[in-house]
Amino acid sequence: MKEGSDPAMRKKKRNDLKEAAIGAFFFTSGILAVLVLIGIFLTLLATAVPAFREIPVGKFFGHSRWDPTSPEKAEYGLLSMIASTLLVTAGALLLAVPIGIAVAAYLSDVAPWRVREVLKPVVEILAGIPSVVVGFLGLVLFGPALARLFHTANGLNALNGSILLAVMSLPTIISISEDSLNAVPKAYSEASLALGASRWQTLVRVKLPAALSGIVAAVMLGLGRAIGETMTVLMATGNARSFPRGLLSSVRTMTADIAIELGEAPYFTTHYYALFAIGLVLFVMTFAVNLAADVVLRRYQERER
Amino acid sequence: MKRILLAALSLALAGGLLPAAPAGKMIQIKGSDTMVNLVQILAEDYMGKTPGAAIAVLGGGSGTGITGLINRTCDIASHSREWKPKEIEQAWKKGVTPKLFVVAVDGLSIVVNEKNPIDQLTMAQVGALYRGEIKSWKALGGSPKPVSLYGRQSNSGTYVFMQEFVLGNKNYSADMKEMNGNAQIVEGILQDEGAVGYVGVGYLYDENHRIRKGLKVLKISREPNGDGFLPTDRAAVESGAYPVSRPLYLATDGRPKGDAARFLSWIVGPEGQAIVEREGFFTIGGGKYKASNDRNFQ
């Protein structure tokens, strides 16, 4: 008996070691993401703060004229770009959220198996289209169409950007919402149907609320994509610096401005630091969105219990 | 005859110098940011073909180059504007006699949509349009359509050229749409009946070398009621009659000698001018720019 247990002991020891190694590997991977995040934040902060040695904070956030290379007087007012970014993003979500959730509900509850098997991969392929291509479509296809539709001189405006960003964030919203709808336990809908509710009532009153956490996450991820997207809006919105006068005016978002100016801003000048300050503002905005999503989710899950 | 003599002389001179200093003397060129890429490419091509030649090119702006030449911290100044009277005075005081050579011509075409009835504008009108002072084409005698401005982004040399040269160093209108390249400006104008834009001449043509359908290139005049010229009229650009163009200069202290002289005459020769054209600038042609260059070489 004694001879037999020895190899088993050794095997167990080896397994323990292996498990510890795997544990350590996953721990480092997890920590790495946190370290990278902290590193990026600190770099941004360190490069952004010197901007405020010369630009008063109140002027940076409260003034709407941005013209760092002006031959008359350099201006660093971010207000119109913040408004533009919010306008384009809000427009995109207004279009993408209802459509996205409707498509997700259709795919999970209504569509026949065959349609579903075709539609889902097609939606996912949509996510793979390069943003330059989407932007070009905005320039030559959506732009002229919008101009005809609204009788404006051109279609290089916030609405064009919103439509394109909606198209780009749809795959994320559809895919994740559909997954969370499918993850709702079958017993929920069976119970609802057994109580005499129609399929529509079951979908709207039972399944959608049950899947809400996943749907909120999907919308937030779509929002993140829309705020951070650069190339598409750079090509489609016209990049005028003026304060947006509505969805049909040409706007310049914060991401587009960084993309336009960072390549040529001389290093370690106020202009250079100011662009990093815009980056910091974007970072804080996406961070706030994620935090809000987290809080909403947690509250919802607590109520669930 | 004189030029051949000069070339022979400088060759002999260089020949005498080369064994003593095998690396040769480094030619320092400083100045215009508009020209820095062009001059860099010219220098690289020239160095590749001429063993022993060493040329260093720096930007910093036309003013930096001119000051450099006055203070003798560079051998050649590149500048895209004329010398100011004060700078000439300073140069004379320090015993520097600048000799200017036109090596290329920088120019832009002003384009509108084909449906716009306007055919000709003055320089002042183009400036006023881009400063946002004229909001409707009606003010210029056109249809009552709002003006939509198309321009480049602030990282482009063309943006700066327009701002300095046509807007008189004033701010662009905040409503100008800032497009990501010449081709996008053209796309925008094709769709927009109220559009006006500025693009390099190379972007006007389709694959058959005709002006693209839907575009109209405007005649530009220097003065109100003056004659307008088209940027597609080579003679008008090379003579300086087309107003939205400016000569780009390389300047030396006194008549250029040795390596600098050979580099300069190579640039204004056929090989250099072929590169100038390939980089999107106009060549100097055989008119007044060539004549003034020839005078300054002698």
Main attributes of the structure:
heterodimer, A: 305 residues, mainly alpha, MetI-like fold, two-stranded antiparallel ribbon, 12 helices, 2 strands, 76% helix, globular, B: 298 residues, alpha/beta, D-Maltodextrin-Binding Protein, domain 2, 2 domains, five-stranded mixed beta sheet, 13 strands, elongated
Describe the protein's topology:
The complex is a heterodimer of chains A (305) and B (298).
Chain A: H1 2-48, H2 57-62, E1 66-67, E2 75-76, H3 79-110, H4 113-126, H5 131-150, H6 158-182, H7 186-194, H8 199-210, H9 212-228, H10 231-236, H11 254-261, H12 270-304
Antiparallel strand pairs in A: 1-2
Chain B: H1 2-17, E1 27-31, H2 33-49, E2 55-60, H3 62-70, E3 76-79, H4 85-93, E4 98-107, E5 109-113, E6 120-122, H5 123-131, E7 148-152, H6 157-165, E8 177-179, H7 182-191, E9 195-199, E10 215-217, E11 219-221, E12 228-229, H8 234-239, E13 245-253, H9 258-268, H10 270-278, H11 288-297
Helix pairs in contact in B: 1-9
- What structural class results from the helix and strand content of chain A? mainly alpha
Number of domains of chain B: 2
Count helical runs of chain A.
12
Sheet-strand content of chain A, in percent, reads under 5%
Q: What count of structural domains of chain A?
A: 2
Radius of gyration of chain B: 21 Å
Percentage of residues in DSSP E strands of chain B: 15-25%
* Biggest sheet character of chain B: 5 strands, mixed
pLDDT < 50 stretches of chain A = none
What would you call the shape of chain A?
globular
- The CATH fourth-level homologous superfamily of the largest domain in chain A: MetI-like
Mean pLDDT of chain B: 86
Characterization of this structure:
The complex is a heterodimer of chains A (305) and B (298). By secondary structure, chain A is mainly α. Helices cover 76% and strands 1% of the residues of chain A. Chain A folds into 2 domains: 2-53; 59-304, Orthogonal Bundle (MetI-like fold), CATH 1.10.3720. Chain A is built from 12 helices and 2 strands; from the N terminus they run ααββαααααααααα. In chain A, α1 (2-48) packs across α12 and α7 (186-194) packs antiparallel against α8. Helix content of chain B is 39%, strand content 21%. In chain B, the strands form 3 sheets. Chain B has a 5-stranded mixed beta sheet with strand order 2-1-3-13-4. In chain B, strands 8-7-9-5-10 form a 5-stranded mixed beta sheet, sandwiched between helices. In chain B, strands 6-11-12 form a 3-stranded mixed beta sheet. In chain B, α1 (2-17) packs across α9 (258-268). The longest helix of chain B is centred in the first third of the chain and has 17 residues, at 33-49. Classes of the chains: A mainly alpha (305), B alpha/beta (298). At the A-B interface, α5 of A face α6, β8 and α7 of B.
